[in-house]
Design brief:
Chain lengths: 317, 317, 317, 317, 317, 317
């Protein structure tokens, strides 16, 4: 278990812990010798590192994509942290834990999963219920669904991200059929729960989060609709109409063709799954951006929100 | 009180009731004489009318924009209703009631207003509460706010439309600060309640709903922000930060510049007021479109949703 | 078998043949009586029809969507053909043939199919060949593939349309791997042959061509990729890489997200299938537009080409 | 008064003058010591600075946002100027003058203001004249209006920028009502003079130019329309039509929704104020870009003009 | 010379004058006979016409594109004028004058031409002056330039339209080099005068205005640049730089690629020619739209302005 | 003749050869001295260079845009090559060959030209043939056409690029008139051969490839259409229709206004020249991108393809 995390290290601290190497360069010193620059990462961020002397052993063992025990001192470069490394060598695999290197949801995954099972249990339509059960009675699926991030970089890019994203959307969705009584509650909730299941095939997240080849070539909408169709095929008597509506919800939940949905939402429940997904994603970005800019009034321009974000300077009451 | 409404009149029915004249043309008959064609309206729709003989009196009294007692028979033209008029003359003003000529919310306006006052009463921030009270303690504003439509044609184009739209958004908004705990509940609810107040200056709705000149030249976002600023000016010590945030919510609630917001939402509560407004409007269009196409599987292409809408053929469970 | 087709009927011709009724209205005559207007169709087009007298029997039996024996005379209304009907009654089912009511490819379907089987036989990669064989050894699939239109209105909207479109693209594609030697010939040709297979589930074409519910809610790209994936699942040892590439070709062949592809082409063969599909479709529109405007120099504005089309006035040599 | 300005300093020059510090970093030397890098600014530009030795005192006193007396030598780094600092300490407030740190209009502000008062005096409509007088008889407004920049970075980003921009537009506008006789001269000129008054609340410009919170959350269009409405409210009998037209001009002068106008111009005078504003802004960018590239034939790609700019190599006659 | 023009004919007037036939249809009467409907035009507009009886002679002689003497009575159909024709036969060619059938500029063409020659004479650069002289000393060019419309439908669609458009732009341009002193006056004025010369090859306007084949296939920008290049080729020593700048002005004067300019303006004078062209065109549309809606407050939605236009109800002072 | 090319130099190699200097900076050493950084280029790429000591002579003779004999050692900086220079001085002009500094087509220019002359010889229409002969019998044109690149950076940015691009398009085009029999073969092939002739005036390519002023101000579409028109003017009896069609092909071959075509394609042959040009260009980018990323599965995001490119990991069969 790591004890020293990049985000918390102050300039001047002595460091002795495991880090992931995400970049490695050999550079020439003025006197003709060489020095080594690295980028080290853990789940809290990344920092550049520099090793001036006795780099011969390091040159032999350090590669991009490996985990290393790093001894040195945290310094400061342009107001940002920078390691000065005195010793670096391969870490014991016993000392490497994924939770140290990918961020994880602030919420307890077990509790979220239990809450989600509650939403599943509340579905009354027997076909939709059977479909959800087919997914959530499959331990392999549940394990993946509970762990996979919901994004690679922009939002929910952490372990349990998809679970957190889905649960938040369920909470927001559940009161809506009481307000908009024309909605089919079971269809809406099933759509919310399943809209992103394709993401379990979209990401790898052993250490860094990355897209699978299938994720980039097909995308989680198409893969998710296929997963749903395969589960439906095993349920006897599943109505054709219901099948096409739930698959349409999965395919259309990005809302617009230019966001990668091959079809736009064609009924109210499909529209709402898109709207809830959109709102939860944007709120997550607002939240993360504000958390990273505690003492500012304005953040930098955020390319996903396409604006600077304003930060309240005080409780407004 | 009218008893015969256009939507309900079957072909073959004898008609004798009050209608609003929205078009009037004189046309030439083959034998050199003239006949009269009209468009008649009430709150349920419009229908063409034709008067073949003895049109001299009609020519003298019938004008666009007037209310007339019409005697005749409802016929059928290209599968659509058409009046054949035998007699037409000005209606008694005692027989003319606006509720007969503009549609009205399916919900009781008094109950909706009471519910809205409940949301106002739940606001704890004393400045925001004072701002809301300034609006809702003003009987003239309340009368307008309760009656004005929230749209001219597309959605909520009926008496009480703004009130219904605002109350539905309040219902949908109120659980969100429990789910997304970073939200400022009072700011969000105040934003929801006030986001469209400018619409009381955007529409006239004596008979047909139309835009005011100010509505078209300034728009309800700018007029609403001004109304809020004027009320704030009368509240001592209202914090500048809170003032600019609430006005920003009003101005940014169309979400994108190309939808007429001069600024895009720059914090989470502003974004959410936009998202709730967007969702409630779209859901209203889905609802109206489905209601008008009861027996179809697909509606015509809807220009606001930019798609045909799919209609479920049966309960899905 | 029909002998009189709408496109060929000159004004003044006596008509006695079977037509499809696509619209029906009862209208009021000035003397209080009624007359009937219809729209009649066959595979060559549609024309309005009017029936002035003795319409009682017609009113009882004529409905939209039926086939009728029509006796009357072809007239002219605003330079366009119009029937004057004297007698109309239900057609014998023996007199109704789909080929009379939907247009068909100008090429022989058997010959085109044989040519296509030749392209299949030329594929050397054993997995791709097995995949193609799985489709083209299935008589039900072949029957549908040979008959289904490739469009509902704009281009290839005729029986055998998909087959013609696919064969033309094969012809254009086959020389390209000799020119661009980096291309994988088998992958390209398989992609061309399979890119639109989902269209067999996109259209119904019993009389008029229309979309299936699945066609509108999922679309032929997603359905086609699913059909390919299902066939692949039955082929032992099919390489994962090849599987994802061929499915990506199907999904990306509309080229841009805004044209309904959930992913844009990510390698050269996928790009080329898009380019060939695009070129063949546009050329078909140019061809149809020119054929309909034989004596003009310019056609009307064509919404798909987004331009008027120029027509050469003579052999250019 | 400063004598040494960044733009004019040649490599090799000894420097001893006051600068504004806009960045400050402590970096690690190879020998374990530290050095200091800064960014220094004045009205003519900015330059990086580096301090190698004896930085302890500097570390204590130098902060971002302060003014400092800097002693050192101007060097060259990648063809661009770089200070090497030997001594740095807080400047005497008597030595700090805003005009040294923000650029100023090339024209005399007094003369421009006098010219502008001439355009005001020429307005004959008594209500519009009263409105203009209400602004220009207010010394506080006049002081701000004469000093505020018209932009933060792109054009007119200097003291007196708004005044210069407005006067230039007045000059260009005044002949147009003679050419286009349907124009209302007084409405046009009033619109030109007032279109940007909201900018006095959009910028702070004590040292660097920046947006106010209100500027970013509301924008100068909405704030300007409010300022106009407030002044109008104090003028007895001001016609409603005229009021909404002049406010519409202010709100619509960005011409398109996507440029931040909540309404597009709805009459000729409003359109022309937009066109004049657009032309004056673009011409200012062309002018500045050409001035910065005296000896080139082409400038770099300019993101506001969305093109490289061509520069004539000689008098063309 | 015509005396009766469509725009001025009141319902009930007896008509006997020459009109252009732009549509002709034969329709069937209920009694089996036929009647004739036409569209008649002159320079003031168009109106439908109907001929009930004795149409045999008319059928023989009336064709689309011919001029006819029409005797009959002006009636009213849906509030719009409609002829009832009693007699129609080919007009004497002596009675047909183009000025009766295409609208013409409200300004005197000779005076406008003289004014334009004044702008030419004021150009001091000897090469640009020689270029302008090459055009304006060519009587054939001058004749075409003075007569050709500047548009087919939207604005300046009348004889002398290009001349009027060019002169108005010259008037607006001439004060700008005094205001923006960095401008090259001769280059700007030459650009204004020549920017649309290609239009003499873009339109035919014998009776109705239409595009030439070259106009639609190449466009007036490319043809104009070619005309300029050809004239330059005949001027000895014309500087290459000046040649490419003036041709660039012609090619870039639509301002944006999507408006058909192959290049966007790359220096200030080119930008200004675009801006002046844009402003003059839009002002012309505003003017025409207002003139056609004298008594309204709002016009219909105008597709070129992309808005409804507001009309002042009174002098604003 | 160069023997050492940047792309092939491994870290550690001793270098002694001619390079082109494309950047030069003097920087300050910590001890107050100076060092020199350069960018060196040849046809295979560019690399940074650094010179630490004895730079006085270098400072005097090294300028951007010159060719230099460079002695030193190739090192490594952040995984990329970097020269350490010990000696640098002007190269002998005898040692400078353009082919060493601009890349060249992988195909033999003489053979490509012969193939192209074959396509010319196959044109049967005597006017089009005469037009092609007019170009290809002109040795100066042929020399330029055979050497000019077809792009500055993105694709075909090498000597012989236009020739290669044109020949590849000819190969792809020649089978299409057999498949799409409505096509005019001669018009299509002439369009393909001439579509880019304007590029001989668009680029300079003495050392680095750059745009001419005319290229940026007019573009190769307009210049090419002019070149075609000039050649046509010398051919007696060339039909006007044919002339405008071939010029339209040249002008419209970018397909869309926003890609710089002043007109979109208005007949099938013009559309096909666009489609072939588009396909050949994109395929060239795919090819170059794959070649540069031999061992990857995905390339970086490519701004022209607007995607990452997927690279097959093995023969797919």
């Amino acid at each position: 278990m790591k004890k020293q995390f990049i985000k918390d290290l102050k300039a001047g601290t002595q460091v002795d812990d495991v880090f992931y190497c995400s970049r490695r360069d050999v550079k020439e010193r003025r006197d003709g010798g060489a020095f080594l620059t690295l980028e080290l990462r853990d789940r809290t961020g990344s920092a550049p590192a520099i090793m001036w002397d006795r780099i011969e052993d390091a040159l032999r063992c350090v590669e991009v994509g490996g985990f290393y025990r790093v001894v040195g001192r945290m310094g400061d470069y342009q107001g940002k942290p920078q390691f000065t490394v005195s010793l670096i060598y391969p870490a014991n695999s016993a000392d490497i834990s994924r939770d140290d290197f990918i961020a994880t949801s602030r919420y307890d995954r077990e509790k979220m999963l239990a809450e989600l099972r509650g939403y599943v249990a509340a579905v009354k339509n027997r076909y939709l219920r059977a479909l959800l059960d087919a997914f959530f009675a499959d331990p392999e699926f549940v394990a993946e669904f509970s762990l996979v991030p919901a994004g690679a970089r922009v939002h929910h890019a952490f372990l349990g991200g998809l679970l957190e994203h889905t649960v938040m959307m369920c909470r927001a969705a559940q009161s809506l059929p009481d307000i908009y009584t024309e909605l089919d509650r079971d269809l809406l909730m099933t759509g919310v729960i399943l809209h992103d299941v394709g993401k379990v095939r979209e990401y790898v997240y052993d250490v860094a989060i990355d897209h699978t080849p299938d994720g980039r070539l097909m995308g989680h909408l198409v893969m998710g609709a296929k997963m749903v169709e395969d589960r439906i095929a095993a349920i006897e008597g599943f109505p054709a109409e219901l099948s096409r509506m739930i698959r349409h919800i999965v395919l259309s939940h990005h809302g617009e063709l230019e966001f990668g949905s091959p079809k736009t939402p064609k009924f109210a429940e499909a529209f709402l799954v898109f709207a809830l997904d959109y709102a939860d994603s944007r709120l997550a970005i607002f939240r993360e951006v504000v958390e990273k800019n505690k003492n500012a009034k304005w953040t930098d321009f955020n390319p996903y929100l396409e604006t600077n974000v304003y930060i309240k300077d005080q409780p407004t009451g």
